[in-house]
TrEMBL record:
Cited PANTHER family: ALDEHYDE REDUCTASE
Species this protein is from: Streptomyces stramineus
The protein's name: alcohol dehydrogenase (NADP(+))
Regions annotated as coiled coil: none
Cofactor(s) the protein requires to work: Zn(2+)
Record key words, sorted: Metal-binding, Oxidoreductase, Zinc
Taxonomic superkingdom: Bacteria
Family: Belongs to the zinc-containing alcohol dehydrogenase family.
Enoyl reductase (ER) domain segment(s): 16-346
EC number from the UniProt entry: 1.1.1.2
Pfam family, one: ADH_N
Reaction catalyzed: a primary alcohol + NADP(+) = an aldehyde + NADPH + H(+)
PROSITE patterns (UniProt xref): ADH_ZINC
Amino acid sequence: MTHHTVPAYAALSPQAPLERITVPRREPGEHDILIEIKYAGICHSDIHTVRGEWGAGGDYPIVPGHEIAGVVSAVGAGVTRHTVGDRVGVGCFVDSCRTCESCRAGLEQYCTGELGMVGTYAATGRDGRTTHGGYSTHIVVDENYVLRIPDGIPLDAAAPLLCAGITVYSPLAHWQAGPGKKVAVVGLGGLGHMGVKIAHAMGAEVTVLSQSLRKKDDGLRLGADHYYATSDPATFTALAGTFDLIVNTVSADIDLDSYLSLLKTDGTLVQLGAPEKPLPIAPFALITRRRSFAGSMIGGIPETQKMLDFCGEHGLGADIEVIRADQINEAYERVLASDVRYRFVIDAATI
């Protein structure tokens, strides 16, 4: 298999700042698409992975980035889904086994086959090579794992939808957020701000549960009906038994029992953030009102396309701060300090 190289920003070790290098990309095969990357979002997962914090990371150098928006610049002879010039996106994975029950159901993120879900970066592809992500100028991806970005969404604001957008859309759709449903979003960050926009567009009554009221004006502007500070114990008294669905977007250790107490009978708390340590739950927090504690991870290709189309119809994109590639390391520190409203997006032209 022949390759060419492209510029990228990579971490050479867990402690190292990201720096500009070149990485190999395969020549497009029969069903491959060569994408000129225009924008790549910075996801908290990128930071966890390059710093080896999830016990993952794999071989260095690691080129992160799984919120990719760009334009098709070449297609293989057998490609039918996309043509040169199309606006496209790539999310958290670029392949899967394609034959297991999950893949056949369009739930590739839960692939149980031998290949498994092949992450967009720091994973091993079918060719045995390490995948490199979106902090680069170009990427080659099988057409079955490439999404259409509707014309109504600017490419820079669309990039974070490929991870942050689908991560919140999937549980909101699965647990049927909509008119007559009361939904709470815990945390107003990269995921949370999209959760508010999408739940509001679905017709749900939306409440933000944030540590403080610092971002209250933003929350209400984004579509929240109510905004409460979780640092105030009165919040948990006032909202006891209120919600049909709570989506927890934060990766911090929180007192789950307190949050479970906010659910109605048959309500569900969905965990999206991945804290480093196990989360304790008192059985009676679940038993007493038939409450559920659940998890959810991104979405499959069909659902991700549905999410993009939904966002296109409702004019939804992420609230972003576009940066140059030489600002990536500074942006990482700002993400860790929660100093971004609400997603950094790298302008790939600066790589």
